[in-house]
Amino acid sequence: MSLKSPTLKQQIELMRYALPRDLGNDLILRVATRDDAEPLAQMVGRVFGRENFDANVAAYARHYTDETHPIIGPSNVLIVEDTRVDKIVSTMCLIPQTWTYAGIPFPVGRPEVVATDPEYRNRGLVREQFKTLHALSDAMGHLVQGITGIHWYYRQFEYEYAFDLGGGRVCHFSNVPALKEGEADPYRVRAMTPDDIPFIAPLYDRACARSLVTCPRPESLWRYFLDDSPLARAYRLPFQIIETTDGRVVGYVDCSHDIWQDVIVVGEIAAAEGQSLRALTPTVLRWLKAHGETESAQQNKPVNAVYFALGREHPLFDAIPELLPRTRLPYGWYIRVPDVPRLLRHLAPALEDRLARSAMAGHSGALKISEYRRGYKIVFENGKIANAETWQPTVDERGDCGFPPLVFLQLLFGRATIMELREFFPDVWANDEPTILLDALFPKQASCVCAVG
Ligand SMILES: CC(C)(COP(=O)(O)OP(=O)(O)OC[C@H]1O[C@@H](n2cnc3c(N)ncnc32)[C@H](O)[C@@H]1OP(=O)(O)O)[C@@H](O)C(=O)NCCC(=O)NCCS
To answer: Checking DSSP bridges between strand 144-147 and strand 249-260, what pairing results, if any?
Structure first.
């Protein structure tokens, strides 16, 4: 079964939500068809471009609404149509993918390209679509949904900022070292091809090993990113190989097509084992600057820097600190976990492994986690998780620790320790022994997820 194929359960869910569904006032909520590709592209291009048309997001929509798209396709695109004027007025899509947590794979649904025509806003059209999208995602077996989105908004739909998104360092074009007269570049940059995958994939895997949550990239995904069809190339740059002038591959870099807030964004960069990252960065910076200036001319947008959105820590930041004077704080991944005990049971091997290496190895007992209006109970037997289930706190039985709704996800996903959360939120608390247990089970660890988009 491909990631995007609707299962029987998914079809039943669709029937349950009665798609197409009449939302009243001539508005219909339905799944897209391939005929929607162009009107949808025009709609999201207008919405995201605001005063200018956003050709990149339009090209992206054109691709993912195409039947040939290997991951999304029209069946994962929701649309609200005003049948009175035959117009798409709101949309979102679902990107199914697999992530890992401490090495354990788990299925994730990523809502993306959420947009409503300005004339139809604040009428609950996104809220309606989320009900269906979350049901679809659940039917596809996703344990988690994750979205990168505008400030605060998705909190309304049970999402919490559970780990970092982006963040990193900025290199202004004025800091890019120029070649001296008569000096030749010792490296060159070229588009990656499928032949490069066996050499480059381990470099990506090595970077993932630093991150608690990752999006593994099997060969099929590398090929998806390298798709050089006109539909894909209209919005996505290929990864770039860095090689010596005699063609020996020494690293790779991934850079955005789009210009965002006067910068071009680098999402990945790595050097091969035994290769100095510092040595190859001047060539790469010169290439990135030239690329940014070309895009700037084509897109008619100013650009003045490269933003290395590589997280709080990255080998590049140690390699060229003098060229990266400005730090940008990370934003956050919005994460929704519809069934926390189910996710805890799924992640049990990783949690048990942490426990075994802690001061509470071999622990037996129940850990009751209160979210005030609901709660969870993890039952340990000799260091193993015998069960994780919902548990209802009461005034008389308030459990072992407490979190305002959803804040527990920050602990689970390594964003903060229990003591840090207690500093940030006066209504987070934990008794003495549970504090030791929570520290053992949920150590702080950064994530830098290069998701499928
Ligand atoms: C953000 C956007 C998608 C919201 O669409 P919408 O159809 O107006 O959303 P809904 O009406 O379903 O929103 C649900 C609730 O949030 C409120 N809301 C709408 N926009 C909001 C915003 N920007 N911030 C906070 N709340 C907002 C709505 O009033 C509604 O409140 P209610 O349930 O109490 O009545 C739309 O404004 C848009 O397309 N913006 C430009 C593109 C964009 O930024 N997309 C998101 C990218 S991640």
So the answer is: unpaired
